[in-house]
Amino acid sequence: MKIAIVGVTGMVGQVMLEVLNESKLTFDELILVASEKSAGKKILFQNKEYTVISMQDAVNAKPDVAIFSAGGSVSLEWAPKFAEVGTKVVDNSSAWRMDKTKKLIVPEINASSIKKEDYIIANPNCSTIQMVMALAPLHKKYGIERLVISTYQSITGTGVKAVNQYEAEKNGAESDYEMAYHYRILDNCLPHCDIFLENGYTKEEMKLVHETRKILQDDSIKITATAVRVPVQGGHSESVNVQFKNDFNLDEVKSILNGTEGVIVLDDVEKNIYPMPLFAKHKDEVFVGRLRRDESQVNSLNMWIVADNLRKGAATNAVQIVQYLKKESLIG
Fold first, then answer.
1. Other beta carbons within 10 Å of 67
2. Degrees (nearest 5) of the Cα angle 302, 122, 150?
3. Which residues on neighbouring strands pair with residue 217, listed in sequence order?
4. Catalytic residue of the set 182, 189, 192, 236
5. Any catalytic annotation for residue 193?
6. Residue numbers in the chain where pLDDT is lower than 70
7. Dist. CA 230–CA 292, nearest whole Å
8. Which of 25, 28, 65, 121 lies at 20 to 30 Å from 107 by C-alpha?
9. What's the angle, vertex CA 104, arms to CA 199 and CA 289, rounded to 5?
10. Strand partners, 229
């Protein structure tokens, strides 16, 4: 099997290499791909030196699968070119997520929907992935009627430019960096993830709305979201208020989540045990805690959900899709 990592020099691309190294995925050839300006760069992986190649050279190499993390415009242009030569594309950008002809996949939830004819497969948004991991089994049991979501998102979701800004602010070198945000991030919270849309919500907030409905296959779920960037590097946190169609038992909710692949319940407030990005960093699981009834609304639950946005929120989910494709003989 020939596997390509497209956008390998970026923050998510580098984490994809980490996840690939840790995974049990076997391959015969690894192709590292980036923009023209990065072509020729040397990258060491598993004690072997690789030369980064251009997009066209990668298409010519006809890999069996290509994992993209190079931005929406690059995916729109190049993913179809890879697909034309028979390459399965797992795309981490927002380019294809809401395309009705493309699958939006979280493997633990809906990998079985992937068919042989699916050549471009979308990886959901990081904040969506961790949330639906916790919600999907509860939706199946109780039926979700409404979600009220507040996110506390790591600066790593913006990329290396944001990390550089944060580090410069911490070190008192504020004049030495290029601003990733309109304001400083240190000692601040920015209720501004991605661009603002005509309805007053940000693009990130609407991703949570539309992608959740698509993954859970239920357009009737009422969803509203506020996404906030916080000065954290370990991962995204989410406060989610869930109103179910049917009543629930709190112990049963914990049991369901404890039995869900990829989810870990950390919920013992008497011992101060609850999820935090401090503990989620570099881990692949989704952590859930602060589970409690909403005493102001019937059939409603409050949840606190945390995950490393660069791993399960991006790289890990993509590699898991590739593992599924190989297991089901959908790639070489």
1. 30
2. 20
3. none
4. 236
5. no
6. none
7. 24
8. 28
9. 80
10. 153, 190
User: Tokens for 287?
Assistant: 């952590």
Q: 239-269 burial by CB neighbour count: b if 16+ within 10 A, else e?
A: ebbbbbeeebeeeebeebbeebebbbbbbee
Local structure of residue 190 (DSSP, 8 states): B
- Taken as a whole, the chain contains a residue count of 332
State how far the Cα of 190 lies from the Cα of 289, in Å rounded to an integer: 24
H/E element holding 239? Answer: strand 236-244
Tell me if 52 sits within 8 A of 32, measured CB to CB: yes
Question: What are the strands of the beta sheet with 144-153, ordered from one edge?
Answer: 222-229, 144-153, 236-244, 300-307, 286-293, 263-265
pLDDT number for residue 50: 97
As a whole number of angstroms, the distance between CA 29 and CA 27 comes to 6
Q: To the nearest 5 percent, what fractions of the chain are helix, strand and coil? A: 35, 25, 40
Sorted by where each starts, the structural domains of the chain and their CATH numbers stand as 2-124+314-327 (3.40.50.720), 127-308 (3.30.360.10)
In the three-class reduction of DSSP (H, G, I as helix; E, B as strand; rest coil), residue 24 is classed as coil
pLDDT digits (tens, 9 = 90+) for 257-277: 999 999 999 999 999 999 999
In the DSSP assignment, the letter for residue 151 is E
Amino acid 242: pLDDT: 98
Q: Is 189 one of the annotated active-site residues of the chain?
A: no
- The answer for residues whose C-beta is within 8 angstroms of residue 170's C-beta and 6 or more apart is 186
Per the structure block, which two tokens stand in for 255? Answer: 């049991």
Cβ atoms of 121 and 103 closer than 8 Å: yes
